Amino acid sequence: MPIQPLSSDKLYRGSALNGLDEECKSTKNLTPLDEIVGQERAQKAVEFAMSIKEKGYNIYAIGRNGLGKRTMVLRYLNRHEPNGDTAPLYDWCYVANFDDTRSPKVLKLPPRTGNEFKKDIEKLMTRLVKAIPLAFDNEMYFSRAETLKNQLVQKQENALLTLTNKAKSQSVSLSMTPQGEYQLVALNGEEPHTELTFAELPEKEQRGFQKAIDALEIELRGIVRKLTEWEETYSDKVQKLNEEVALEVIAHVIASLKEKYKHLPEVKHYIAAMQADILDNLDIFLEESEEQVALAYAALEKKMPRRYQVNVLVNQDEHKFPVVVEESPNYHSIFGYVENATYKGTVFTDFSLIRPGSLHRANGGVLMMDAVKVLERPYVWDGLKRALRAKKLNLSSLEREVTLSGAISLDPEAIPLDVKIILFGDYETYRLLQHYDPEFSELFRVTADFEDEMVRNDESEAQYARFISSIVNDNNMLHCDRKAIGRIIEYSSRQADDQNKLSLHSADIANLLRETNYVAKAANATMIRANHVEQALQNQEMRLSRLKDHVMQSFVNGTTLMSTQGEKVGQVNALSVISTSDYQFGAPNRITATTAYGEGNVFDIERSADLGGNIHSKGVMILSAYLASVFGKTAKIPLTTHITFEQSYGGVDGDSASMAELCAIVSAFSQQPLRQDIAITGSMNQFGEAQPIGGVNEKIEGFYDVCVIQGRATGQGVIIPESNVHNLMLRKDIVEAVEKGEFNIWPISHVTQALELFTGKKADEHDGENGYSSHSLFGLAQAKLNALRR
């Protein structure tokens, strides 16, 4: 039986939307999906990871860009109840550590309390900055301070007066020099002795004066020590007085704050420490010297001492589960950093200049990042692993870690970390991390594997229609009528390269809908219809097809040699796909085979010229093995064959031309011509069986376009593997041509069927014990080979 071409109904599967009610006329009648269609497996993985609290159950979401990975995860997390089984949320603040200013302390507060506490402290400081100076500027304080001063002066004067009288009784005067030093001098009557008058005194009298002065000096030194002690006692009393006065003000103002936060031990302890520190640093409030306290008030926000500010790092909403998407995951944006400030030429930093990172904001929730971006930035991956292992967030200076300088920096207290990390990436990045980083599998134990496609049936088409409705509603587009929905589903099936599958590349569908919506609005339509979808697809094709038009032009002007009619020995039309980053199209290639007397080798010119890839070389080896099994079972094939892709200069890979190459070689062996109005695609195994290939739709369309360029003729067509029939979603013009009998698509299961179509002869017909029939293609080839052997 001759091979029958496919009927037109096998070339395209339309969408009747049998899964939708007859009353459903458009997406307006459909309930939008609240999830990404066809990703149940990935969603289960995310749900599983989110429900486990143990360390290491972070998620790596695998899949190509555009599958809706981020959208699906965000939609799931938005439904995630924060008050259910999730970790409790907290506000995190940094405050001064009054014992060690280099190590700021962390305060953990209930959600929405951080900013409130900050404002309370600001109000407190505003009151104290005014109230404390006033408390020291009244008669009562002056009176008490004056009394202490008078007591000190009185004691000092009494001690010195006693010594002065005693000295005078021994004719010695006690006086103070202009430099402020005490001086004992012998008296000559009422006047001090000069050096001359003292020298004129008898030696005994001089020794008496010297002895008296020495004794008085010893006594004077004792009194001076006492004066110093009394000064210190006085300072202590003044300090105590100041503290008592200040405490009266502070205790009154701070009492309500202590009462408000008494249920939070950390805050209560901080308020007590702050109160003690204020009493130790009253000069900041009294502003005795503006220059001394200028830096203390160098606040960037409020007129208050910097050391008492509250730096609210994270202010959480107790009713909202924190989900943070980090678009630019560098070290500072993830882990936070410490700023430097300049005031009057002085560079300084403190806890109030600590800034949060994504991990701080996502603490208690989820942080989502692109895996490749994380790995591209230096030190980020190591820092992330360190934080997840320790379950702590250390805000260490990156500069200090990567340089040898000992610059002074802060060492803030670590914040406990409870976060789920979701990395989005592709399979290659996933495999590299698994292979080269042993910690990766420990920290990212859950893989959310996103599907590229889903099974196409009535139920899935109905679900896909709801998915289309969700895109329409989310973007406030015009609604799609029933035929437009069907056309988009057909487009999705074409994207999946399978009549029985639907593409889950949601970005493609969303982009098509946006462009279709634009076309419909430009036409002043009230609803998206099938013709608008067609127009949008044509617009896409026009924008992306510059390279295709350039290639096809070479067939128009004859630059690329191609015959689509007649017959030729050792020459066959093969099909290939040319791809760019966002577009692919088919174009036929001429394959030729020539033979010469030799050892039976098949030389692949592409491989010899380093233009053939490994897979192409494997295909040539497989067809060589098949040739040997057919023609070389009893004796070596006495021909050397050379095969090549004509006018191919950019490299060839893939094995989808191996059947075409075999047909060209058999034609060269048998000297039987091959039809040039037929093109072929398909790979083969060592037994000659046809194997499926990719890009079958583009390949058929490419040859059809060349046939149109060079002139249509009855009988033109394409041979494809039978296993590729389900992949057919061809253009409308080709389906119509097949329907009219003007173009053919033959499915084959074995390479001999292709040879029969090309030559019109039976390929491997046997003639009893004599092997192949003399009328068969293999028989003719065998006869020529036997003649050469003889």
Automatic annotation (TrEMBL):
Family statement: Belongs to the peptidase S16 family.
Protein name according to UniProt: endopeptidase La
Reaction catalysis annotation: Hydrolysis of proteins in presence of ATP
Organism: Photobacterium jeanii
Record-linked Pfam families: AAA_32, Lon_C, LonB_AAA-LID, LonC_helical
Swiss-Prot/TrEMBL keywords: Hydrolase, Protease, Serine protease
Gene Ontology BP annotations: protein catabolic process; proteolysis
GO molecular function per UniProt: ATP binding; ATP-dependent peptidase activity; serine-type endopeptidase activity
PROSITE patterns: LON_PROTEOLYTIC (PS51786)
Active-site feature positions: 656, 699
Domain Lon proteolytic residue range list: 566-761
The protein's Enzyme Commission number: 3.4.21.53
InterPro entries hit by this protein: AAA_32, Lon-like_helical, Lon_proteolytic, Lon_Prtase, LonB_AAA-LID, P-loop_NTPase, Ribosomal_Su5_D2-typ_SF, Ribsml_uS5_D2-typ_fold_subgr
Domain of life: Bacteria
